[in-house]
């Protein structure tokens, strides 16, 4: 593409490739990446021409220096993160994350997931480390009722107007999404397991609970939710998106401005291949991505963990209500961003 055209082309103008999409959602990232790489190669070629006796080792050092420079420059499309920072947030283990710390709060009373886990562990500890599952392999009615009864204690209860279809209560585990989610995470985290029709708490987990309390399992449960759990488990959409790797970036942005609409736009700018990717057999639209992020990230992750709440009301008469989450105190107690 002609460089003069690129300089004059606005982000929201139609892409000159003829796709019909805005430039920012089509070739902009490709052009930017190509321009960066071209600049790096030009610098290397110029250095090699000016120093003909440059050794291979020196040339490799120069290339490494130039690439590090590119990777450590703030990227506007990443909301100011560098490529290296973004890579770290996408792939690094918790103990290697940069510019963010994750802590276990002293008080987990406002975290639905951890409160439900505590009920499960208490039932097992009162029965020599295990309890009987239902014939379908679910948690017994006693735990389901106990978990349903504590709904009024959570911030999300403000919006649970129809208790019969609430994700935070139910007559059995199959109808109680947040409790079912908790049980799945506890299994993935290696805290409980089902054997011979009974749920058992692992011996090591029993000792941890006795000495450290429910706090011992906060990080393992959170890691299971963000590293192992299938975020599409509860829905059967014909469209899909692998949102889980982006959870920390999304959390940072939502913690910054609290706007779901703004988060969607930032995700599309940062990761344009999420939508309208011709390589996908069933590419996502902007609307589909919006739906998945609200459902899987906000409702079935952040709200389940007690980190935010989102008013489900969308309209006031004919007026659309912007979706702004209410950041709960627990979020600041768990996550500290230094960006």
Order of helices and strands: HHHHEHEHHEEHHHHHEEEEHE
Head-to-tail CA distance between termini: 34 Å
> Approximately how much beta-strand content do the residues carry?
5-15%
* Main sheet attributes: strand count, strand direction, barrel closure: 3 strands, antiparallel
Mean pLDDT: 85
Shape: globular
**Count, helices:** 13
Unreliable parts: 1-9
User: Radius of gyration over alpha carbons?
Assistant: 24 Å
- Can you give the helix content as a percent range? 40-55%
**How many strands appear in the DSSP assignment?**
9
Structural class: mainly alpha
Could you give a short description of this structure?
The protein has 339 residues and is mostly helical.
Structural key phrases:
three-stranded antiparallel beta sheet; two-stranded antiparallel ribbon; globular; disordered N terminus; 339 residues; mainly alpha
List the helices and strands and how they pair.
Blueprint: H1 3-8, H2 28-50, H3 56-71, H4 83-91, E1 100-102, H5 112-125, E2 130-132, H6 141-149, H7 177-188, E3 192-195, E4 198-201, H8 203-212, H9 218-228, H10 247-257, H11 260-270, H12 286-302, E5 308-309, E6 315-316, E7 319-320, E8 326-327, H13 329-334, E9 335-337
Antiparallel strand pairs: 1-9, 2-4, 3-4, 5-8, 6-7
Helix pairs in contact: 2-3, 5-7, 7-9, 10-11, 11-12
């Amino acid at each position: 593409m002609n460089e003069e055209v690129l300089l004059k082309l606005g982000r929201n103008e139609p892409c000159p490739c003829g796709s019909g999409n805005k430039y920012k959602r089509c070739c902009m990232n490709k052009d930017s990446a190509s321009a960066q790489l071209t600049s790096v190669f030009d610098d290397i070629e110029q250095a090699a021409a000016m120093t003909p006796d440059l050794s291979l080792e020196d040339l490799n050092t120069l290339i490494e220096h130039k690439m590090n420079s590119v990777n450590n420059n703030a990227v506007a499309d990443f909301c100011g993160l560098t490529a290296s920072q973004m890579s770290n947030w996408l792939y690094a283990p918790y103990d290697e994350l940069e510019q963010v710390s994750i802590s276990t709060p002293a008080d987990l009373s406002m975290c639905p997931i951890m409160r439900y886990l505590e009920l499960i562990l208490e039932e097992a500890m009162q029965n020599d480390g295990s309890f009987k599952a239902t014939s379908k392999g679910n948690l017994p009615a006693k735990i389901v009722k106990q978990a349903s009864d504590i709904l009024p204690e959570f911030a999300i209860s403000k919006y649970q107007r129809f208790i019969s279809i609430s994700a935070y209560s139910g007559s059995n585990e199959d109808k109680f999404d947040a409790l079912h989610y908790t049980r799945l995470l506890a299994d993935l985290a290696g805290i409980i397991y089902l054997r011979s029709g009974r749920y058992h708490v692992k011996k090591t987990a029993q000792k941890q609970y006795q000495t450290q309390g429910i706090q011992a399992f906060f990080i393992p449960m959170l890691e299971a939710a963000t590293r192992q759990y299938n975020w599409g488990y509860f829905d059967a959409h014909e469209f899909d998106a692998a949102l889980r790797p982006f959870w920390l970036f999304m959390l940072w942005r939502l913690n910054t401005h609290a706007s779901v609409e703004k988060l969607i736009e930032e995700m599309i700018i940062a990761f344009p291949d999420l939508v309208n990717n011709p390589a996908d057999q069933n590419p996502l639209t902007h609307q589909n991505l919006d739906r998945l992020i609200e459902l899987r990230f906000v409702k079935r992750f952040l709200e389940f963990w007690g980190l935010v709440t989102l008013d489900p009301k969308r309209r006031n008469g004919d007026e659309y209500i912007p979706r702004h989450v209410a950041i709960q105190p627990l979020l600041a107690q768990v996550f500290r961003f230094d960006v």
